[in-house]
Design a protein that fits this description.
With about 170 residues, the chain is mainly α. The protein folds into two domains: about 40 residues, no CATH class; about 100 residues. It is built from nine helices and no strands. Helix 3 crosses helix 6. The radius of gyration is 29 Å and the shape is elongated.
Length: about 170
């Protein structure tokens, strides 16, 4: 019973101290600063994966082919061909994230409809970095589109359609 009384008395004195007059404003600020520092010391990092984003991308790229296809909806040889095209034309700034990692973040976002937060957690990058590289890859792929996507010749009717009475 004594400990309850002492504990409640301590709480009352702390509350009284925090609710004190303007003369004790400096003491209030000091207590708030100490509480803030204590909270900061007890924080855990959000992005604490064992693999970095690059390591994860390489693990998926050179791991089981089905994993690669499930994440990117693309086979490894196609993925590597796109990476080579982007690198050959210097379409992505090579700052701190590799072309493979950037493209995998982009494809995972598009293929799996992952949100920015999910990409941050998986690739261990900030939301701003994920967004910046998403835009960079989108711009690079848009620059490749005229050379890679060839529309069919609309003046020629394929024989399969021409000779089929259904059409």
């Amino acid at each position: 019973m004594d400990s309850d009384t002492t504990n409640s008395e301590d709480n009352v004195t702390i509350v009284d101290f925090l609710n004190s007059s303007d003369d004790d404003e400096e003491a209030n600020i000091f207590v708030q600063l100490l509480m803030s520092l204590t909270n900061r010391l007890n924080r855990q990092p959000r992005h604490n994966s064992a693999l970095t984003g690059r390591e994860y991308a390489l693990e998926q790229l050179y791991g089981h082919p089905e994993n690669m296809f499930e994440i990117c909806c693309m086979h490894r040889d196609t993925f590597e061909a796109i990476v080579r095209l982007i690198q050959d034309r210097n379409l992505l700034p090579s700052l701190s994230i590799s072309t493979e990692e950037s493209l995998m973040m982009f494809l995972r976002t598009i293929a799996l409809s992952d949100r920015n937060r999910e990409i941050q957690d998986r690739f261990v990058h900030s939301g701003e970095t994920v967004h910046r590289y998403f835009v960079n890859v989108l711009t690079a792929l848009s620059a490749l589109a005229p050379d890679v996507i060839k529309p069919p010749n609309m003046n020629i009717v394929p024989p399969k359609i021409r000779y089929n009475p259904k059409y």
